[in-house]
Amino acid sequence: MAQYAAQSERLWLEPLTVEKHLDAYHKMSSDPRAASWTKPSESIEESKAYMIERTPNPKKPWIENYAILLRPTTSTPADQKPELIGAIGVIRFEAGHGAEIGYGIHAGYHGKEFATEAMKLFVGLYWGKEREGDWNTLVAAIDPENLASQRVVKKIGLTEGDLQDEEHEMWMKGGKEKKPVGISYYMSHCASVSQSSIKTMSSHTIKSDRLTLEPINLDKHLHGCHKILSEPRIAEWSTRAPHTQLEQTKERILESMSSVQFPMWAIMAPTTLSVPVPVADEREGQEMEMIGIIGISHKPENVGYKIHPDHWGKGYMTEALRLFVEMFWTLKEKKSLPQIIAAYTPGNDASARVLEKVGFKTGKLLRGEIELWFNRGQNRKSDVQCMYIDRRGSNQ
């Protein structure tokens, strides 16, 4: 199972648990600055009780809450764990009301767009699963004076509802006074939220003579993706072990679907026919099969790819990478990047040839950079050869 449920350039989301996150969560929730619109926690026992209420249980199996983690940077010590800077999730569900989102960000990280980034991740993750009935409405209940939170929900596409008659006890800034206030609701149904908040680079589809690159989708690509990610011959050059359970692949796809910066595309080709039909002249009803995966990995400018061994030696990977490079700088999120970076482990000659054919140039050789899956436990690190291709017109 993937370690993180969703990721962006700066953040990770992972399920919030008492065992893993209590101390950091208490540090955030006990800070009056972070809890200015709710009552600060007065003890770690109180924080623990609150967390237990916010984790799935027999009475509330629908609860979904995630720790917002700050991703390490190149200057972060290798032994330092990702820092919890907030929490986000569904905190209430009622028939006729919808699923209510709640979040908190540590005061030290206010004003840096982390709340907006985390909300986009969560909304993408939420709509990556099947939702029915009132679950097709996401609601954010916000005090009318909390302008910062109002800006966050508007940025991710939620629309303003009516001022509600319901009363809420607000923990006032700078003191312990409580005051009943009206709550302003911001609502959006599945269609509008999913389009506004997930309409990222991964909405692009592109075709060549033989292939189509289309965004990875759980319903359409789960079994094809699993066939690729469970193949030991592919994992030989990967840091990840081959998947042994379909649930692992499901989590990987959901991670991709919810990610703004690190999505994956399915490489689709016509099923084997006696007379091959080019994709560009696709006939009605022609069946397509998933033969590979390509996408952004590790960093916003890095490309990674895999193709099933049944389709090696046919030029598919070169064709797919050319398509990807053609698409990359048309994406809103990538227009400012001067290069695409790729990397392979010396000895993986097939991958090196693919990169060279597409026009990638040789970059740095990183010594002892990664531990490949088949070397795991042997205390043996492998080198990584970096390759790059410049954006047209770039002075890099």
UniProtKB/TrEMBL annotation:
Classification via SUPFAM superfamilies: Acyl-CoA N-acyltransferases (Nat)
Record-annotated N-acetyltransferase domain positions: 232-377
Gene Ontology MF term list: acyltransferase activity, transferring groups other than amino-acyl groups
Domain of life: Eukaryota
Protein name: N-acetyltransferase domain-containing protein
